[in-house]
Design brief:
C-type lectin domain-containing protein, two-stranded antiparallel sheet, alpha+beta, disulfide bond, Mannose-Binding Protein A, Chain A, C-type_lectin-like, C-type_lectin-like/link_sf, binds calcium ion
Amino acid sequence: MVAPEVTDGRIGNITDRDSNSNLPVIGSLIYCENDALDHEDIESYYPYEFNYTSALRVAPPRRAGPGYEMFPGVGYYKFHTDPQVWEDARKICAKEGGHLVIINSEEESKVIQQLFARHPKINNVQYNDFAFIGFHDMYTEGSYLTIYGDPLDKTGFTRWSHKGQPDNAGGFPGEDCGSVHRNGGLNDLTCTSKHAFICEQEMW
Ligand SMILES: [Ca+2]
Ligand SMILES: [Ca+2]
């Protein structure tokens, strides 16, 4: 079987082997954050025979997308000041090969604070002090999930921006989309409000 095309040029490490065939499963393909690739399509390629030794030899060096800045040991980030509703923000990050930020540590929260500090005034937004990031409670009120469906309390970072948050403010439909405050803490906001947003590309 022919190996699938690696559209973003990345070849991952061998992270697992199929339990039946013992063939390698390539991690970066499974987790490829490209909206054009359906997850079922990706999984259907496995297991397959793949000469990973030669693939690793020809893989290009890891690069961040345009406008992404590397914070050593943390990741690549892009702060978007052109306000979007949450869903459009999510799509824009995906098109760039990234995703809305998922904060996993205080260290990563500090990177967010640094990015915010460069933009003291953001135009045409509901709140100048918040940016959309990659979590929500659209499915079940009060049950916060990352954009990958993992519980927020498994991310390693659940510090909320202020006492009383999350508050699902504003009556129906409430606030079901995740954001981060300038102070690096989390908050829930209305999904259809327009805000700055922050994309992340994984570092590995
Ligand atoms: Ca909510
Ligand atoms: Ca809130």
